[in-house]
Amino acid sequence: MELDLARWQFAITTVYHFLFVPVTIGLSAFVAGFHTAYLRSRNPAHLRLSKFLGKLFTINFALGLVTGIVQEFQFGMNWSDYSRFVGDIFGAPLAIEALLAFFLESTFLGLWIFGWGRIPEKLHVASIWIVHIGTLLSAYFILAANSFMQHPVGYRLNPQTGRAELTDFVAVLTNKVQLVTFPHTAFAAYLAGAALVLGVCMWHLHQRRVEDDLPMYRTGARIGAIVLLIAGAGVAISGDQQGKVMTEVQPVKMAAAEALYDTQKSAPFSIVTVSSLDGQQEKVAITVPKLLSFLGTGDFNGTIHGINDLERAYQQKYESDPLTRAQTYTPTLPLTYWSFRLMIGIGMSSMLVAVLALWTLRRGSSAPARARWWPWAAVGVTLMPVLGNAFGWIFTETGRQPWLVFGLFTTKSGVSPGVSAAEVATSLIAFTALYAVLAVIEVRLTLRYARAGAEPLKKPDESTADSDDDRLQFAY
Amino acid sequence: MELTTVWFVLIAVLWTGYFCLEGFDFGVGMLFPVLGRSEERRRVLLNTIGPVWDGNEVWLLTAGGATFAAFPHWYATLFSGFYLPLLLILLALIVRALGFEYRHKRNDDQWRRRWDAAIVVGSAVPAFLWGVAFTNIVRGVPIDADKEFTGSLLTLLNPIALLGGLATLTVFLLHGLLFVALKTDGEIRSDARALATRVGWVAAGLGVALLVILGSDRGGAASLTTSVLAAGALLAALASNARGREGWAFTGTFIGIALVVASLFLMLFPDVMPSSTNAAWSLTVDNAASSAKTLGIMTWVGVLFLPIVLLYQGFTYWTFRKRISTHHIPPATDERDWAPSGAGLR
């Protein structure tokens, strides 16, 4: 009971946190990019876009920030035995993330938000770039911690204490899983940021409310679409590499992604299945022959190990030790099977919208985005990568079950022994209720500012017209 | 010095940074209903900490992460044991931070009133509960042979811990008042100074009482020295405030809080969480620590990067050093001021 509640809590708080993180990482690059462009071009449209996206960025950043505080402490609250077991290795990247990344992000975002008219322009632009670098550093260290859970390296088990101890920190930071996961996650974050820029600008191009603003939104949409396509390609390539590493270090996750029960050469990949996934009956599915083998091994004739074989092998290997004993070593199949497809399908659909956008924005088309469905496509393209990111993490984390640290430590051994089910239920309800309210507030605020569009720049004579004016250019 | 001792000191430094910096943020937040009698005054209060509050809070995240890395058992026992108070702190920090960041996003009185409530409650709850938590940590709580906390919420809400909570609440209130006096100008500045005089004696009294009670239990020569110095610093802050020396007054509470934290950690050492069930089951710097390898790496990271953090964080304080008063505050705006109306050009 306590275990289930603790898992639900971690799932809810973490998936929720990660709805905001990719947008934050991706969008900060656009805010910084347009601010830099303004510095060079002095084109007011670039400054307006930077400020406009900056407002959407800060609304999102705030929620990513506050839900991130919970992340720092909930390992100790609900997963104290896990914290004891792995703190030696897992705690270090977390602490480094705070020291290197969070301080940079928070301090320099403060400088950027309040810096208008108060700090030199170049420093101002540098501040938002530093925020962006901070978000990437943060991603790197937290993914290094997560990669250890997928594929533990650089440690030894201390037989006296029963704890994992660090032997090679460089190995932890350059884990082969980490080296493919970080690019995949970073590209997915740029995809999410670019999709938001594209969606918002296309919406305004369709609405055509201010004639003079159309070239500005056109610039934004075109850059958004191009970055989206590049990032999408990056997601696909890094995802492909990730599949191969996963097949090597967590073969059961690859088998679970396809619900492949029997070891097979030239294994097919099913796009959708209408039958059950329990392996009792033949799958009724639309399949692409040999594709799973290629995704997993890079060879259309490669062997993919099936769940049945792997389950037998894992039982033999792990059943003797209480830390690694589990009822089954296979993750929940419908969850892994569908989240894998939704990740790819929804995430990649955004690229289609980007192609359509580039077509309608092509040179010579004087009135882009005339079709009635463009507002829907604009909203859709904004949401797709966010959902794709979420499904990717749901796949990666549920596909690791029953393990917390793959092959080393099961999820059920990690839960806090001293915390009662009632306490976990209390915090689960509290966080879920609060997060739900905050989601409504955040989405409505984002929509308000997104719909309002880029704020016109104040004319310089307006600010000097007031006599004895020592008002701040910007204040909360 | 042994690495475990180095990390005990570093974690004390991180908590010191947190309480000295976010302490005045808590104070400013709690002062909204008192000093912020008009909308413009509330915005003055908010803007004194607007650019810096988030950086201040990162000290907490770093303290949490560093405890996880350096003393995993401390992290595990503390946060699973103090579950419900920590939950309340987290919820409070969430709504408070969003109050800071969302309040100005809409020019709407009801919207602002709601976030004001979030800021006040979200500041008061952690200001109180951190005192409760640290009093319990120093005095010891029931911990069994497996390093598990065996008490309940009521164990934590004992009278002395509640006194500790009141002490931190009032000291942070004083710290916030002196910060406002230092960072604002006009009526709000003189109001803050006058109120600091009245709150100051209560805060100093409670703070000293807490140090005496804890010191009589777990004190030594070193913690006695820092406790006396802490009391001296708090009194010097009050004296400076009375004479209108705002910079010195704020420095006084800043150093006073740092010395209080130093006293608490000196009383703890070499324990990190004493067990009231059996002294042999206490968590200590040795039995709660990570391997020497982790501590060694983390020492390098800390020694290299903490000074850099201090430099750039100091730079933002320098950048936003000017006093703010109501006439600096621009009119409230929101997106409706520029949102184009109508159906568009179609």
UniProtKB/TrEMBL annotation, chain A:
Similarity section: Belongs to the cytochrome ubiquinol oxidase subunit 1 family.
Localization per Swiss-Prot or TrEMBL: Cell membrane
UniProt source species: Luteipulveratus flavus
Keywords: Cell membrane, Electron transport, Heme, Iron, Membrane, Metal-binding, Transmembrane, Transmembrane helix, Transport
PANTHER family assigned to the protein according to its UniProt record, in alphabetical order: CYTOCHROME BD UBIQUINOL OXIDASE SUBUNIT 1, CYTOCHROME D UBIQUINOL OXIDASE
Major localisation: membrane
Pfam families per the UniProt record, alphabetical: Cyt_bd_oxida_I
Transmembrane segments: 15-40, 52-70, 90-114, 126-149, 187-205, 217-237, 338-361, 373-395, 415-441
Protein name (record): Cytochrome ubiquinol oxidase subunit I
Membrane association type: Multi-pass membrane protein
From TrEMBL, chain B:
Domain of life: Bacteria
The family this protein is said to belong to: Belongs to the cytochrome ubiquinol oxidase subunit 2 family.
Organism: Luteipulveratus flavus
Membrane topology type: Multi-pass membrane protein
NCBIfam families hit by this protein: cydB (TIGR00203)
A Pfam family the protein falls into: Cyt_bd_oxida_II
Keyword annotations of the record: Cell membrane, Electron transport, Heme, Iron, Membrane, Metal-binding, Transmembrane, Transmembrane helix, Transport
Transmembrane region(s): 6-36, 82-99, 119-140, 160-182, 194-214, 220-240, 247-269, 297-320
Predominant subcellular localization, coarse grouping: membrane
Name of this protein: Cytochrome d ubiquinol oxidase subunit II
Subcellular location: Cell membrane
